[in-house]
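Query form — protein ER membrane protein complex subunit 7 beta-sandwich domain-containing protein

QUESTION: What is the three-dimensional structure of this chain?
INPUT:
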Amino acid sequence: MLYFQFQIDPPKGWTFDPVEVPINFDGATDLCSLGKDINFNFKGFAVTGKVTSAGSGSGPSGVQLQLLDESGKSKLEVSTGKDGNFIFTPVLPGNYIIKASHSKWMLSKKEVAITVKTGNAVVPPDSLVVTGYEVSGTVTSDKEPITGVTFIVFGTKKPEKPLMGCDQSHVSGFSTTSPELKNKVIICHVVSDISGRFSFPCLPSGKYVVIPHYKGAQNIKFDVQPPLLEFAVEHDSVALPTPFQVKGFSVSGRVLWSKDGKPMAKATILMKNKVVAVTQTDGTFHLDSMRAGTYLLSVKADDVLFKETEVKVTPKSPVLDDIFPDSYKVCGKVKPSSQSTQVQSRDVQFVKKESGTVHNVKVESASGDFCTFIAPGVYHASVPVTAEEKNKGLQGQVVCLPEQTCTGITVVLTSTTGQDHFTTTTVAGGKYKLDNVLPGDYKVSLDRVSDWCWDQSSAPLAVNSANTAGPTFTQTGISITFVSSHNTKILYKLLKKNKGANDKVPTREMSISTGKSKVCFPDEGEYEIEMVGCHQYIVPKIHWKGGPVVLTAISHAYTGYIITQEPVSDLVITYSGNDETRQSPKRLGPLVGVKKDATKYSYSFNLQLAEGEKVTVKPTAKSLLFSPPSYNIVGGVDCEENGVTFDSEKGKILKGRVLGAANTPLRGASVTLADLDDSVISSQESASDGYYVFGPLSAAKKYKLTALKEGYIISGPQDNGDFSAHKMAEVNVEVKDQADNSPLESVLLSLSGGQNYRRNSVTGPDGKMNFMSLSLGQYYLRPMMKEYRFDPPSKIINVEEGATVNIVLHGKRVAYSVFGSVTSLSGDPEVGVIVEAVGVDGQHEDCSQLQEESMSESTGQFRIRGLQPQCNYMVRVKQGMDINKHIRRATPEGISVKVVNKDVDNVRLIVFRRLTQTDLTVLVESDTPEHLRSLKAKLYRDEVVVHSMRLSDLKITPTFALSSVVLAFPPLTPDGRTYTLQLESSLSQASYTYSTQPVRFKADSSFRSARLAFFPQPRSHDSELSHTSYLVVPLLAVLTLLFYNQTAALRCFELVNSCVASLAAARENNTRAHHTQDAGLSDADALLVEPVGNKRKSKPRKT
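ANSWER: The structure tokens for ER membrane protein complex subunit 7 beta-sandwich domain-containing protein are given below.
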């Protein structure tokens, strides 16, 4: 006996089953002696690839990948390993889709198509890319989570596309000068949630810095530690190890000159006599790193006095109440009406309007100057005078435009205390006069100011002498009301009637503020008003004849910039909208630049954008690279003068030709541009003139250029970028059917030789196969295909350098196939069923020794190859150990076919799968619903209860009296074991006479049904009373005897009890052995089943 082990050594990635076959040659029972083939079944090739992180040559582990066929059915599933590598095997030739997914990470490229032909397939680099990874952290204060904290992440460069789930808008109030952020830019920001957690859901691999920024309600600023945190993202999610903590908060307040008054600047804030803050121009002050508590604040400022204030500070009330002075410094001067009048020692009297409180100040200086501090309020200040001083007069004038008359204009004189009020009207020439005006402070005003413009509408006046003159009011024009949505500028000119050809009307410019405002035009008449500035309006120019002017901007200017190192003439901006209209891109340019400094040029562009309008702008120039390459702009609510700035650098252009023999251009060569890490950047095919061009490219990087074309050895590139191509030899094989000279498909061609060359490939539908890139040498060609014999069976081929050898082979068919299908009884296809054709007899002696087999496909179809002509075969479902384990039987058991000189078609086998469960339904019948509810159905196996069901527990609410019910038990294992059904009733046998008959069956089919009847009969009550009457006297006698002989009675009772128990057990077993019923097919509704333990539990019978 000889022992051999046949082992197959396929190319790497190829899968065969089995890999090795042991054989003991005994000359009788071994495979060779029996004439059987040793088959190594080819399962498929390998598909390899890598999932990479964006901007990196490596990738993460744990990414789920699916290999889908053309119908979308999943064939294989794997996960990436180290560096993101993955492999699918075995994979049969065909077209597939690889889909990548992960529960947390986003993938910018998550699907790639791959074709497996005659060998292993490799997924091109950067076909599956993870956009980024989640980075998360927490923020607390005194171990409590803090919501609303903004976290800003900085990186080395802006991402090319916006990051999902991360806000890239401007963070209001944020600024930093940290040295750690040098050469870093803001990427985006997120906000902590109610649990204190924040998350950047999709950061690409790289190094980052995160900075907290917290402004709570009412602009409260919190002190968050650490102030910044550096971290790195590689190929996995990152949980920041250091939590952020809020250490303190800021408190702000405001000092006003009065309640609801103007802000007071440069006021000093003190706590415990220590200066802690100084108010800003808006009157505000800030106290940082405060803790909750009560503090005393004092304020000092010039010309006012403050009371010390007690304030309570909490994070919920970080803004203090406004602080304003308790009293103000009031200074003045009393002027004499003549040199003879003395002012020193005179009193200045302040009378408070609300309360009448009098505050007197003595004039101490001879010049009449005085100062004092008084509380807020409205006062009437006066200097007591004599009767002679009261009779004084006041005169003034109103000057109008030439077209207007100044007669009848009302002039009003009001004392600052409001106590004195005088009115008069102008006379010819606009003059006015007021009599009996006492010395004091007054306000002089005109009541006609709504549609005329004046140099002043009112003027203060101090009456302190008999010669005091009233103010002069001069009309400057007419008033026009403007209502504008934005600050803008207008050009306006007066439209004169009957103007001459040489009359030039001046055009004037004016600024208009946002909101409602009144402006003055110098002359009365009609005007042409034109809107200029950075806004656009529906109507850019209007003709005004009267009434208010409403200006509503519909779009606003956005100004961006491009910076270059040298002037360029082809710089163009293309922009396109991001809406659903999909309009074609628009162009601006070529742009004209200005020299910014000695080494830079600046080019600006302007776009008019409506609020919320989204556009993408992209600068282009033949020789420049831009950073960022493009930018998404969202129209704002106002003009933007400092928009995006594009930086540029001069790009590198890589070009050349692919040249063949005698420097002839080679078309169709694949030229690939890659970086030094062999990551492919771009690829293209050489044109008909052999040329290729890449660029512009970054001049700071180095690149690799490679060129490939099957059948050629390509070297280079040279300094000028040219590649040299040298054609290699090739062998073209065509296989035809000898019978009709038609092409033979799927013929396996094996070519070996040369310099360790070996390749196995199959012919296509045209029967052809090309072996390319062959070196000089001798090769051995062998065709193989089941059912065919080839002429010649093999061939030696001598291949010269660069030569093309054409070979034609003919195949003669020597065997045939059986085509058929395997289905279920319902006609559904059955996949994976092994079908064999066993030789029976025929014209050849060895026909009975033949056997071939095949497996049904997903459609249920099968093809058994290699059947010899003039032989009879039995086609059947193969049986044996571990073969077709899921099939119970087939019909017919076999089909006889005779092979002559053609294939046999339409062989159909119907198979029956093995049972997986036995369904059990039980019909329980009784005469009344009460009798049904008293029952319990039990199912026994080997004397052990496996299921129990109380009929009283069933939730059945019929509208009629129920006398039967169908019970559905849980499915049973179809193991052929014997089961017993038994009814038990809670009815007392003292009141009823009944018996329950068991039903026995075997679980050896798909369905079993049984019928159980329960019809109890009530016992007669008269009979019971009669028996009781007769038995009373003997029973009393027995009880008396037992009382005096207790020991003997106990022994007797134990003996009787033992005998009764034995008889009861024998009777129960005997009862189960009778009245066995076989189950039949029926339908039943599923009901609730109560599972019980493995042992029967004894239960006292109710009486």
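ADDITIONAL NOTE: Residues 652-727 form a domain with the Immunoglobulin-like fold (CATH 2.60.40.10).
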